[in-house]
């Protein structure tokens, strides 16, 4: 069964802490994405990567950075967590095919106190 | 960025009945893809159905079908013979030749016995 695995389902962090969210896919997909999901706002794209070491800003990159050192792994980093970053974070991957179906992980629910 | 609008934050349907979820989008492009994703409570997002804009025939997957009106930029999802397991958030999404999908804000579907 193909999988996108997010390292933590639930995290609680304090304001100012550095937070790492890890995502691994086993489908040899070129593209990987980080979305943020908030009630009433849907999914908003934070960053994506189309190749190892390549990254592109999405719609809401402020306060976040990413790392993709290996094809299968895409990390989201909050350098200094703030309460307005409390949210559900969804990782996804896709192949280079134009139809670009996304495969999602189960999500990481982050609470920043 | 292209916008995707889901005008129904919540919908309700009785088991075995049919329900239609609405989605409109804004684009100036002629080639693109449209998707409906389902997110059950506390579970990961999965693809329900996909439509290529160049195809005139509406996509169908078992009890799920779409009404794709390209000129009107409308992409509604019809769920026939609704089941309790259909209860979920449903997201409409748009993709052009780029990498990422743009999502609507979602419709919460309640299925009542």
Q: Would you give an account of this structure?
A:
The complex is a heterodimer of chains A (113) and B (113). Chain A is mainly β. Chain A contains no helices and eleven strands. Chain B is an all-beta fold and 113 residues long. In chain B, the strands form three sheets. In chain B, strands 2, 5, 6, 10, 11 and 12 form a six-stranded mixed beta sheet that branches. The A-B interface holds A 4, 31, 33, 35, 40-45, 48, 50, 56, 58-59, 90, 92, 94, 98-102, 104-107 and B 1, 6, 9, 33, 35, 37, 43-47, 50, 52, 91, 95, 97, 99-106.
Terminal Cα span of chain A = 36 Å
Low-confidence stretches of chain B: none
Classify the oligomer.
heterodimer
| Strand fraction of chain A | over 45%
Number of strands of chain B: 12
| Mean model confidence by pLDDT of chain A | 94
**SSE order of chain B, one letter for each helix or strand:** EEEEEEEEEEEE
Q: Report Rg of chain A.
A: 13 Å
Give a short overview.
The complex is a heterodimer of chains A (113) and B (113). Chain A contains no helices and eleven strands.
Secondary structure elements and their pairing?
The complex is a heterodimer of chains A (113) and B (113).
Chain A: E1 4-6, E2 10-13, E3 19-25, E4 31-38, E5 42-49, E6 56-57, E7 65-70, E8 73-78, E9 87-94, E10 103-104, E11 108-112
Parallel strand pairs in A: 2-11
Antiparallel strand pairs in A: 1-3, 3-8, 4-5, 4-9, 5-6, 7-8, 9-10, 9-11
Chain B: E1 3-5, E2 10-14, E3 19-21, E4 24-26, E5 33-39, E6 46-52, E7 60-61, E8 64-69, E9 74-79, E10 88-95, E11 102-103, E12 107-112
Parallel strand pairs in B: 2-12
Antiparallel strand pairs in B: 1-4, 3-9, 5-6, 5-10, 7-8, 8-9, 10-11, 10-12
Using brief descriptors, characterize the structure shown.
heterodimer; A: 113 residues; mainly beta; 7-stranded mixed beta sheet; 4-stranded antiparallel beta sheet; 0% helix; 52% strand; globular; B: 113 residues; 6-stranded mixed beta sheet
